[in-house]
Design brief:
single chain; alpha/beta; HSP40/DNAj peptide-binding domain; four-stranded mixed β-sheet; 7 helices; globular; DnaJ_domain_CS; stress response
Length: about 290
Amino acid sequence: MQQLRNYYAILGVSRDATAEEIKKSFRKLARQCHPDVNPGDKTAEEKFKGINEAYDILSDEAKRAEYDRGLFGKSKRRPPRPQSRPPRNGNNNSGYKRDSEFWRFQDYNPGGTKRAKVVNPSRSARDVEAKLNIPLEKAYRGGRERIRLEDGRSLEVDMPSGMIDGQKIRLKGQGLQGGDLYLKITITPHAVFELRGSDIACQVPVTPSEAILGGSVEVPTIDGLVKMTVPKGVRPGQRLRLANKGYPDSSGKRGDQLVEIQIAIPSEISEEERALYQQIREKEQFNPRQHWL
């Protein structure tokens, strides 16, 4: 029997961790191991893949419950209460599964929808709703997407650009017995970017010399890499703004990208660099602790 990987250990959380704790740990680790932050580092790349794999399982309640049963046996975690009673025709609430070619998910009957009482619901047109998780870049760009339903149907859907979390896309006539299908969009957390309304926030590391001397650095945006000028003497935690590089709002107007500066200290330096830093220490007059006492 194939041994399951311990996704809790990979994310550094306990078995009873909340969804918010899992998300927080994922974002922290994903930033540390992201290929853009560690170019050419195969170890970091493998860790990044493992972190994403762990988050894909533990962030979904249904997948997490099934994983717990496989890892621990009978799970002590109580599954979340369903928001609505399953329909009597045998359809079950479920999540989704993505493979290399298709988004796969199972239709379910949305709760809270008022509709007329029917004598024979199996022959009546019914609207159904399904959840579709997509990455931030796909939500931003939109475009044609192929999806496959659990009943075996395969559909091509024109996704609009600038989709937001919780948005629903109506597919007319693609529900049960001729009803409509509603795709509920969920934007998955990004390893680098964080949506704050129509603004996009991110952290960008700079070297000590870049922070002191300033200069031009490359910054990732949702449109790709752009050049940004770092002012001289920039402080750690200081935020710089890239105008009109954020996310489009309902009117199509884009917000800004907020870039938080992080000063990165190298773990290893060459002997030549060490000698230069020693010269700087001997000559520098700046003392950040002179007013402490």
